[in-house]
Each structure stands twice: as C-alpha cells, then as structure tokens.
Amino acid sequence: xxxxxxxxxxxxxxxxxxxxxxxxxxxxxxxxxxxxxxxxxxxxxxxxxxxxxxxxxxxxxxxxxxxxxxxxxxxxxxxxxxxxxxxxxxxxxxxxxxxxxxxxxxxxxxxxxxxxxxxxxxxxxxxxxxxxxxxxxxxxxxxxxxxxxxxxxxxxxxxxxxxxxxxxxxxxxxxxxxxxxxxxxxxxxxxx
Length: 192
Fold this sequence. Notes:
4-stranded mixed β-sheet; alpha+beta; globular; 4 strands; 6 helices
C-alpha cells in the first residue's frame, strides 16, 4: 500500500482558503468572516509540527504575534496543523493545553481559540450528523481570535445568539450531498 504524498504548505493553505470561502463564508456559517477575509486580515499559518510540544510552541508564537499585530493588518489567525492531532479525541484533549497557554500568557479576555477538525463531532451528536460540519475543516485547525474584534462584530450583528441555530438549520437543509458538492470534504472525512 502506498501512501499519498504529504501536501505542501501552499496546498494546505489553498485547501483551507477554499473551505473558508465555500463553507464558512459561502454558507454564512460565520457572518463575521467575510469582512476580514476580503480585507486580507486572515493570517493562515501551517504548522510543521509533528508532535504536540512543537504545536504548543507554534500556538504560543502565533498567539503572541496576533496580540502584537495591528488588527487592520491581522485580525485573526488560522493555525493549521495537518500532521499532528489528526485523531479527533487527541485534538479534543489538546484543547485543555490551549486553555493553559491562554491562562499562563494572560491572554484570557484578549484572545480566544476556536477549534475545527475534519472529524469534528459535537458531544451531543452522532458522528454522521451533518450539523457537525459547522466545525469541520479540511485539516485540524486552531482559529485564534481577538476578543475585541469579536465583541465589535457581535454588537454589529443584532441576532448573534441565533447564529448557532441558523447554522444547524442551514446544514440540515444542505444535507450531506450538498456539503460534498461544496468540495470541502465529505461530512465524515477524517473520522478515526
């Protein structure tokens, strides 16, 4: 059995941007994403990490970089890590370490981290539930966000609390076939 060649960093970024444009923005899963994307304020970084410690180093470096960057230049960062935490259960456990980094660097209230994974499954969902796709990305990804930017976006969006429920409805209406047609990964891709 031959394994497929590893994607290049450029391929990882291109695939992730395609997902961002077709699924996140195209389906309006995040009504705040389009504005920062069209302004070029979304930083995509591919981690070369092959283990959790190296990924933690990359995470810390990117969190500190985002904290120091001007929001007009970099408002949010997608830290994509295709070669580590490919198993969803390992990924979920790692999120506890993400919280430790935010705490030790005193970044709570300044930055937050959202999580996306090819095999994302909400705790109360079956693995094949189409609504899991709201958090399914082509590669394991940590989304680093500025709290201030998020607060401004939520204030500008009068029904921010309804986003989650609207997303679930959008995906139910789209269905698995519709998701596949987006070309961003099958609803159950990457499940381990």
